[in-house]
Every structure is written in structure tokens, then in C-alpha cells.
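Thread title: Can someone regenerate the structure for this chain?

I was given the following input by a collaborator and told the matching C-alpha cells would be attached. They weren't. Posting the sequence so someone can regenerate them.
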Amino acid sequence: MANASDVVNLQRVDEASAIAAPDPIAAGTWMERGFGKLAAEQEHLWPAEGEQASRVHAATAVGLNSAAETEQFLLSESASLVTASKESYQHCQKTLLPWVHRGPHHNLRYWVGWTVLGLGDAVGVAGAAILLGEEIWIAVGQAMATGLAAVTAGSAGHDLKEVRMARQRRRDPDDLTEDEKRYRRFFDDTSAGDSLLRVVAWLAGAIVVLIAAGIFALRASIEGGLAGLVFGALAAATALASFFNSYSHADEVADLIAVALRDFRQAVRRYRRMGRAAPLRRRARAHEMVKSITEEHRLRGEAAAHHVQALKFQSLTANPGVVGHGPATNNQGAAPAGQTTPPAKDSR
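Best answer:
Regenerated them for you:
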């Protein structure tokens, strides 16, 4: 594009005069109309090129509509689940938090204890079985089953603790608040009776005795009665420690709050995963490409039209003898078309 300063040269003069455009061509010359059409062409030509350049992206966006709408529907449903699970968790925590007895980091201690106690029994059984000449894989399998049996027997402490805490929470249904009625089962004494608890306790005790007796007999046959007594006592102590580990960890109210929190976090993770669905991302990218390309070509078209207009005025400037120095004005004191304006005195 030519620089305007290279075309127009203004010199300082003492007097200035100008010729207005003649009346017969006040509506514009053929040249001016030609430049106008060229400018109008640019305003259509560039958008058309933008349409062509963005056609692939537009077609991609349309092709993804069905899949993206499906993902959008699932995303909206997932958002509803996030809201519902959040409200459920907050309501549960607000209503039942006063009845929580478990510490914030007790889960880690419970599972570490459960694992260590189970491995303790398993190692004792495996070592004795291998020394007795048993196949290693058989000895290890039997030892793992024994360790699991020991910690399972100890889980009876969980049931005993829940019964005790349920009796502490027991209240008359008429005394419950509207929020507490949503968790009525925590305040009703619908737990197992003492007779059933005694059955569970006897069964757990039988498992402990059988494990201790088995390890005692196994070790006594290899290393003597004293070693058998030691390892049998350790096996019984392990099972009893599992009982108290389960007893201290038991808290069904804290379990419910933890489940509500887990559901909320799962809903959030699911929502985030759906938000990153490929159809949604690809359609959004295609729409943005179409928008950017279209806007670029629109601006280029406007710029090209202005450039043609500038060329028109440069051509008019180069031919003052035909078209004058500028359009005639209707201001008072303006010279008639085709006549010289009165000289203007330089006041500088």
C-alpha cells in the first residue's frame, strides 16, 4: 500500500484557494463509482474466502453435534449428581457429626494394624509348616488363610462396639428433629439382642482357640512344647489384638459420613471426566476455529475496502482540474460549485 505522505505534498503559502467539485459531477464520476464497487467487492470477497477456509471446521462441528449433545446431557445429569451428593454429605455431616467418635486418621491405623496382625499369624504358621516339610506354596496358602481367620474373628469387636453405641444414641422417635428423622435407624434400638451377640462372641473365641491350638501343636512337634506354647500364645494374642483393633475402629455414624464424602468425590471425578469428553472438546475447538477465521476475513475485507477508498481519493487528488479539490459545501460563505473560493489570509 502506498504511503499517503508519498502522494500528497502540502506546502505553506500566504494565500490558499480551492476549486469545489463541479455540479455536473457532484454525484460522482465513473471512476468514483468504479472504486465504490471495488470496495463493495472486497467486503463480500473476503468473507467468502473466510467461509471457504472455515468450511472443514464447520463441517467437523456439525458432525460432532450428536455425540456432543449426548455428552452434554450426561454432563448435566452428572452435575445434578454432584449437587445432590454434596447436599447429602453436608446434611449428613451437620446432623450426625456430634455422634462421631472416631478420629480423623484412625482408618490408616486400623488398616495398618489389620495387615500387620494378619501377617503375624500367617508368618508363624508358614514357618512351622515349612520346617515340618510341607510344600512352600501349600504352607504359604494355609498360613494366609489362618491369618485372615484370626483377624476375621477379631472383627466381632466391631459388632460389639456398634451395639454399645446404638444404645447410647437411642431416643424416642417423637424427640427426633426433622433432620434426625432422615437417619432414624441410628436412633432406634434395632440392634441384635444379647443372645445373638453371645453366639458371635463364642464363635470368635472358638476360632481363636483353634488357631492357637493348631500353632501350638505344629510348633511343639518340631521345636518342643515350650516353643509350641510361645507361638500358640502369640497367635491367640494376635487374634485378641485384632478384636480390640476392630472395637476401637467401629463407628457406623462415621462410616456413613465417609460413604457420603466418597460418593461426593466420585461424582466430582465423574463430572470432571465427562467435562473432558473428546466430542465436547473437538466441537468447541472447531467452533472457535470457525469464529476466528470468519472474524479474520471480515476484518481483512473491511481493511481492503478502506484501502480501495483511499486509492479513490488519491486518484481524485491527482486530478483537481477535472474534479476540483473537494466536494462543495452548503456552509455560509462557501463558493458556488466550479468557482474559486475567496482567498484565505494566512493568520500565522
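Confidence is low (pLDDT under 50) at residues 331-348.
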